[in-house]
Amino acid sequence: MIPINETMERLALRVEDQWGNTVNSFDGSLGLGIRAGVNVFGIFAEGAEPSFAGGELTMEAIDIPEIAFIIGSSRRLTASIVTPEGFPRVADTATFEVTKAMPELTLELDPAIGVVGESITATIALSGALDATGVVEISSTSSSADGCTISLPQPEPSCTFAISSSGEFDVTAFYAENDFNAQAVTVIEGYVVADPLALTIDGNNEVLVDNEEVYTVSLVNNSVALSDNVEILFEITPPQSGQGARGTADPVELSYCADSESAGAPGDCVWLPLTLTPDNGTLTGRFGPEGGFPVAEGYNASTFIQAVFNQAGTFDVEVSVMSLSQAHGVLAADSITIEAN
């Protein structure tokens, strides 16, 4: 089996006279061809010439003609010569198959981690193809992405698409076969698409009453800098009467680590109170300086929050990033349910 765009590395022919004896010299001509049915297509590598030594004609680097009709099974390589005595000699090989070129497709995605709703550039390379034409289809396992199409040939084959939901998705590049090339497929598995702004709160879901618990609130900006300053809003719904409430005026107390960036660990924190205000059965607190704080491109920071739950029961905690100049619109949020016993 030989792909049409590859080269036969070496051919050796033993030259005999009309009586079957090996000849010692040869100045005739050599003709090579590939037989496909009743047709014989002549072949020779460009610039290559056969050499003769020890009764053998040898030839290096024989190119197969780039003709679509040659592709198929039951092909034969034929050789014809005329000996020094003027007698023609013809030989052929057993049948073999000439296949389409077997291209290799590679795919790169930029950025390395996608952002919901933002452009992702898919760049492909198709190596080992013979005059590749047609299109390469880019698709993903996300139901919220349309993919894109790359037309060939072009010097820098690429296209852009977007995915409008977060998660991990497989992205596939597919090249359909044509007259000369077999199809090619490549897949990038588990491509991550993140929310533009991500807020998380992490910590224990089950705690002891009157015990100090530390929670980590993290804010990551995977997109461009925000045009508005923000603050962090805490909304805590404490247990209702009958859930173990013992009538305390402060069912939960919050503090924040004043030097978490330099300390890097709760044990090194200087804890300052975070005021909670009752609001229709919910306790509300705001974190951040007056006027809020900016969120630059690539922003990634965490704040330690210390909580003391003064009564037993279920506490529902919602944490939100609030834009200060857009009527306190919610830009990102997370929540946690805590059982105090």
Can you walk through the features of this model?
This protein has 341 residues and is mainly β. It has 3 domains: 2-99, Immunoglobulin-like (Sandwich), CATH 2.60.40; 104-194, Immunoglobulin-like, CATH 2.60.40.10; 197-340, Immunoglobulin-like (Sandwich), CATH 2.60.40. The protein has 1 helix and 28 strands. It has one helix at 260-263; strands spanning 2-3, 7-14, 30-36, 39-42, 51-53, 56-63, 72-82, 88-92, 96-99, 104-110, 114-115, 120-127, 134-140, 148-152, 158-161, 167-175, 184-194, 197-202, 206-207, 212-221, 230-237, 252-257, 271-274, 277-279, 282-287, 300-309, 313-323, 330-340. Strands 1, 3, 4, 7, 8 and 9 form a 6-stranded mixed beta sheet that branches. The longest helix is centred in the last third of the chain and has 4 residues, at 260-263. The radius of gyration is 37 Å and the shape is rod-shaped. The mean pLDDT is 84.
Task: Count all strands and give the number.
Answer: 28
Q: Helix count?
A: 1
Largest sheet: 6 strands, mixed
CATH topology of the largest domain, what is it called? Immunoglobulin-like
What is the total number of structural domains? 3
Order of H and E elements? EEEEEEEEEEEEEEEEEEEEEEHEEEEEE
* N-to-C CA distance: 74 Å
Rg, rounded, reads 37 Å
Instruction: Please identify the top-level CATH class of the largest domain.
Output: Mainly Beta
Query: Based on the structure given, which CATH architecture of the largest domain is correct?
Result: Sandwich
Strand content: over 45%
What's the mean pLDDT score?
84
Structural class: mainly beta
> Which regions are unreliable across 5 or more consecutive residues at pLDDT < 50?
none
Shape: rod-shaped
Helical fraction equals: under 10%
Oligomer: single chain
